[in-house]
Amino acid sequence: MSVWRDTPTLIGRHVTLRPLDRADRAAILAAFAHGLEHVFATIVPDEASIDGWYDRLEQEQAAGRALPFTVLDADGQVAGVTRFMRMAEPHRRLEIGGTVYAPRVQRTGLNTEAKRLLLSHAFDTLGCQCVQLRTNWFNRASRTAIERLGARLDGVLRGHMITPGGAPRDTVVYSILAHEWPGVRQNLDHQLEKHA
């Protein structure tokens, strides 16, 4: 099977990313049960939506457009989800997104290391020439985190999508190119030293 079709297990000191599995359903719901009720900037699966959410991810993966991960913390507890998405193997590009973390691990070394592992796999294993990251215009915390990674602003897609509440959303698009990856990797490694 192609490395573009096979979800790997990526292991770091603070985080493990392993292929998403429906057996994670209860643990994902528990991780998101408290503190994410009013999140407006991303889709947080809940009891009513998680089965449809799994269905969509499995369809995207079967079509070669996504590789979804369950995120485990250093203790092996489910702490969130993330994925490679909008994958385009012929163009050697993808997006890292669909990321949701339990409040208990937000703003810790977990996210930095997760992005380091994902970017390393994208550039060093898949041979990507471009990795994108997108976020809601109003999600200042996410924009700051993406910029801290070393991604560069591509632009804003105004009225890009309709949110579950029915409002139009402006999407901010960032990217990292292959020739920028060595500098971004060095930056991430420096940030991770602070969490050692």
From TrEMBL:
Tagged with keyword Transferase: yes
A Pfam family reported for this protein in Swiss-Prot or TrEMBL: Acetyltransf_3
EC number assigned by the record: 2.-.-.-
GO molecular function per UniProt: transferase activity
Primary enzyme class: transferase
The N-acetyltransferase domain, residue ranges: 15-179
Entry keywords, A to Z: Transferase
Name assigned to this protein: GNAT family protein
Originating species: Sphingomonas qilianensis
